[in-house]
């Protein structure tokens, strides 16, 4: 009986050593893996992140006229619908296409109020550009005399410093500008020129074509980040045709979707600490601008 008991004691000691070794290994393993923990995933939930895609102007008051006499509204509607569909397909199920029937000035405030009430996380207003009347030249299209200007082409992005989240607006504007640029689309630089007179704007980001347009109601009255995209110039005869192509709409829409995905991810990271602390709204005019007018 003594011998088996001796064996048993040896076996017990060996087992204890093995277990403590395993425990030590495990502890060391945990300790060594702790600093290399997985980087925090951006907390973006497309299912709850709500984007408003605002269709600029109304069916009654169509905005600018194209070189061939078409109303800006139809360009805005086609592109905004495409962006809405692509955002929903990318998982942003709460995306809202905002169509407004009130063509008066009150309709602009209504757009912002509706977005604020939701409340939306991001407001993207879709427009197509023209030029001041003094730049217009005449040509005949389908028997009618029309105004055109081939002088400028390209998109532009606008934000307002009076928006509820100016920093976020600039951030999204830059992301969208970057995506457009990566797809070979160039922004128009002419808004900085003196000849633009009252339409001259401050270029916030020369890399991506984000300008300031502080007075725009839909940008200054929205509490969430808001950007207005002039998707291109429909008064330019060539660009008008390009803007009618589904391929061009697809490029712009893909840019918008990728920018929203990036923005949602950035917002996710930023919002977490703010939610747990008393966060004062950052002061306006915080030096984000390289210069002012
Ligand atoms: Zn417009």
Contiguous helical run count: 7
Mean pLDDT, all residues: 85
Give the biggest sheet.
7 strands, mixed
Q: What would you give as the CATH superfamily? A: Zn-dependent exopeptidases
Radius of gyration over alpha carbons?
Answer: 28 Å
Q: Please, how many domains?
A: 1
| Distinct small molecules | zinc ion
- CATH A-level architecture: 3-Layer(aba) Sandwich
Quick overview of this protein structure:
This protein has helices spanning 2-33, 72-89, 105-117, 166-182, 217-220, 237-244, 246-276, and strands at residues 51-55, 96-98, 122-129, 137-141, 144-148, 156-159, 202-205, 210-212, 226-233. It is α/β, with parallel strands linked by helices and 293 residues long. Helix 2 (72-89) crosses helix 7 and helix 4 (166-182) runs antiparallel to helix 7 (246-276).
Jot down its keywords.
alpha/beta, seven-stranded mixed sheet, disordered C terminus, 15% strand, 42% helix, binds zinc ion, Aminopeptidase, 293 residues
Strand-helix topology:
Layout: H1 2-33, E1 51-55, H2 72-89, E2 96-98, H3 105-117, E3 122-129, E4 137-141, E5 144-148, E6 156-159, H4 166-182, E7 202-205, E8 210-212, H5 217-220, E9 226-233, H6 237-244, H7 246-276
Parallel strand pairs: 1-2, 1-3, 3-9, 6-8
Antiparallel strand pairs: 4-5, 6-9, 7-8
Helix pairs in contact: 2-7, 4-7
Q: What this model shows, in words?
A:
This protein has 293 residues and is an alpha/beta fold. It has a single domain (51-289), classed as Zn-dependent exopeptidases (Aminopeptidase, 3-Layer(aba) Sandwich), CATH 3.40.630. 42% of the residues lie in helices and 15% in strands. It contains 7 helices and 9 strands, in the order αβαβαββββαββαβαα. The chain has helices at residues 2-33, 72-89, 105-117, 166-182, 217-220, 237-244, 246-276; strands spanning 51-55, 96-98, 122-129, 137-141, 144-148, 156-159, 202-205, 210-212, 226-233. A 7-stranded mixed sheet has the order 2-1-3-9-6-8-7. A hairpin with a 2-residue loop joins strand 4 and strand 5 (144-148). The longest helix has 32 residues, at 2-33. The N and C termini lie far apart (99 Å). The model is unreliable at 9-15, 17-33 and 272-293 (pLDDT under 50). Bound molecules: zinc ion. Zinc ion (ZN) is lined by residues 56-57, 63-64, 72, 127.
């Amino acid at each position: 009986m003594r011998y088996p008991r001796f064996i048993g004691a040896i076996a017990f000691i060996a087992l204890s050593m093995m277990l403590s070794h395993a425990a030590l290994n495990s502890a060391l393993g945990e300790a060594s893996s702790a600093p290399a923990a997985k980087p925090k995933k951006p907390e973006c939930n497309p299912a709850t992140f709500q984007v408003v895609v605002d269709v600029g102007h109304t069916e009654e008051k169509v905005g600018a006229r194209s070189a061939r006499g078409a109303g800006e509204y139809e360009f805005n509607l086609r592109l905004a619908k495409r962006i809405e569909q692509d955002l929903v397909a990318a998982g942003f199920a709460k995306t809202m296409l905002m169509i407004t029937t009130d063509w008066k000035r009150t309709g602009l405030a209504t757009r912002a109020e509706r977005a604020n009430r939701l409340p939306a996380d991001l407001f993207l207003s879709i427009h197509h550009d023209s030029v001041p009347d003094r730049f217009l030249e005449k040509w005949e299209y389908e028997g009618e005399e029309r105004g055109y200007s081939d002088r400028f082409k390209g998109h532009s992005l606008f934000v307002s410093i009076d928006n509820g989240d100016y920093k976020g607006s600039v951030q999204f504007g830059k992301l969208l500008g970057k995506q457009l640029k990566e797809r070979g689309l160039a922004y128009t630089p002419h808004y900085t020129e003196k000849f633009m007179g009252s339409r001259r704007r401050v270029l916030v980001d020369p890399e991506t074509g984000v300008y300031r347009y502080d007075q725009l109601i839909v940008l200054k009255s929205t509490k969430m980040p808001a950007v207005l995209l002039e998707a291109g110039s429909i008064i330019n005869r060539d660009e008008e045709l390009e803007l009618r192509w589904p391929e061009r709409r697809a490029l712009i829409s893909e840019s918008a979707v990728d920018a929203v995905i990036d923005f949602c991810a950035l917002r996710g990271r930023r919002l977490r600490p703010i939610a747990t602390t008393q966060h004062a709204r950052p002061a306006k005019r915080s030096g984000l601008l390289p210069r002012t007018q």
